[in-house]
Amino acid sequence: MDTFVGIGTPWQIGCAHGEQLAEAIAANIELFWRRMAAAGIGGPTLRAAALALERRVLVDARREEIAAIAAGARLEYPDVLAYNLFRGSVYPEECTVMWALPDATAGGRTLFMKNSDKIGREDMVGPNFHKNKEINVLVALRQPGKPAIIGVGQAGGTGLKMGINDRGVCAGTNIARTYELRTRAVTSTQERAVDRAQLARDGLELTAATLATQAMVARVAESPMATPGNLEFVDSTRAFVIEGSYDRVAVQAYDKGVGSRTNRFVTLQELNDPKDLSSYCRLVRTQELLAAASGRLTLDNFAAFTRDHANGPGPNSICRHHGDVRSETTQSAMVAEINGASPPDSVVRIALGKPCHAWRHGDGHIEMTLRFKIEDIPEGLRTGEVWKRYWTEKPFEAEPAAAGRASA
Q1: 6-10, 25-29, 39-43, 397-401: which range is least confident on average?
Q2: Looking at residues 88-115, what average pLDDT do you find?
Q3: How far is residue 149's CA from residue 165's CA, in Å, rounded to a whole number?
Q4: 231-270 burial string, b = 16+ CB within 10 Å, else e?
Q5: For 343, which of 181, 312, 335, 359 is 20 to 30 Å away at the CA?
Q6: Residue of higher predicted confidence among 45 and 103
Q7: Cα dist. 227→86, 154, 179 in Å?
Q8: What order of strands is seen across the sheet that includes strand 258-261?
Q9: Which burial class, exposed, middle or buried, applies to 274 when counting CB atoms under 10 A from its CB (0-12, 13-18, 19+)?
Q10: Three-state DSSP class for 92?
């Protein structure tokens, strides 16, 4: 996993992104075009749709940043724009998210966790891919007049899979495995849709989970998500889940206790695909872990949860493993403890590679606060060598993690 650190205006951040990760961006976009062609959607159609849609679904700062990425990487703007708008249709984000509000934690501070799971492809080969997986980036952003952000994204994209800002807001995303998703082909008619990763990034530029949820619900009501899925915003006092499908949206708010989401709906559960066993197994397991230690939960517990192997190790465990490169497996993890009294001192840990391996090695993960400096990020995390070292389908151990057991 490479690291991108951006400081300055959207144009400055985008240019630096494009220049630093030019080869990886080009590889990701080239593969994106091949995936879309395989779905029967041509480049000219998609570029035209992207240009027609951009002002409807992207804020001005995000369009400026995308234009700057294209300039920095010496790529055409419509290509980078289309990749940012439509990549979620062909690269679903399979994930597990958990949270615990202050009444459920040992230290009285909100906890958040996300495992990022992704599919692979046989054609993801060459120096800009590793073991048939897409290039990801650890993102650290400082923008004038906006919250600082730490999260995980991908080369060439402005969206985030997961992240936290210095106002104490965390964000996560999950695709929802619905019957309609399984039976509906990717078509050019989806080009009015918005990508969840973009919504997560935009929400993290706001100062509270309530504000992020209100703003992103309004966006989803106007332009549905590209695929069915969940969007989570959590801060020091509240947690929200936005569930969105092609023609409906629901919001659930939490003021106390614990919660979790996998790749299925809870409020819109009638839409779930009955053939999706993994999402059900992981949801039940997350609830077991949270309930077993409710009132005593710690950041170390949450790190342990990310590498849990109950129901596996395999596709049905929280730390997901699979021998088929085309299947969804865990690629990275993030846990955070939100300091409500001093949000910039909130603690975030990110494990690069398979959590059951990366947490066990000092160079496999990083712990930071939102007062981070560029020099806080070790060189190995910037070059991608750490992610390559600890991403493997071989489980470290077979036994599940215990709720009270520390791992980081």
Answers
A1: 397-401
A2: 90
A3: 4
A4: bbbbbbbbbbbbbbbbeebebbebeeebbbbbbbbbebee
A5: 359
A6: 103
A7: 10, 18, 12
A8: 258-261, 93-100, 111-118, 329-337, 347-352, 365-369
A9: exposed
A10: coil
Task: List, for residues 335-387, the tens digit of each pLDDT value.
Answer: 999 999 999 999 999 998 889 999 998 888 999 999 988 777 776 665 567 76
* pLDDT of the residue at 298: 98
pLDDT in tens, 162-173: 999 999 999 999
> Tokens 């402005």 label which residue?
158
pLDDT exceeds cutoff 70 at 23: yes
Helix, strand, coil % (nearest 5) of the chain?
40, 25, 40
Is the separation of the CB atoms in 171 and 162 below 8 Å? Answer: yes
- Chain-centre distance of CA 46, in angstroms? 24
pLDDT the model gives residue 20: 84
Q: In what order do the strands lie in the sheet with 249-254?
A: 2-7, 136-142, 149-154, 162-165, 170-175, 229-234, 239-244, 249-254
Dihedral sign for Cα atoms in the order 181, 184, 186, 189:
negative
Output the pLDDT for position 121. Answer: 58
- Per DSSP, the three-state class of 286 is helix
Phi-psi bin for 145: left (phi > 0), alpha (psi -120 to 50), beta?
left
Partners of 87 in beta bridges = none
pLDDT at 393: 72
Averaged over 187-203, what is the pLDDT? Answer: 72
The pTM of this model reads 0.87
Structure tokens at 300: 């170390």
8 Å CB contact between 319 and 330 = yes
Sequence-distant (≥ 6) Cβ neighbours of residue 70 within 8 angstroms: 18, 76, 77, 79, 80, 81
Handedness of CA 60, 63, 67, 68 (dihedral sign): positive
- For the record, the structure tokens of 273 come out as 């695909």
Overall residue count recorded for the chain in this entry = 408
Angle at 186 between CA 183 and CA 187, to 5 degrees: 120
Strand partners of residue 324: none
Helix pair angle (22-38, 10-20), 10° resolution: 90
One-letter amino acid identity for 386?
A: V
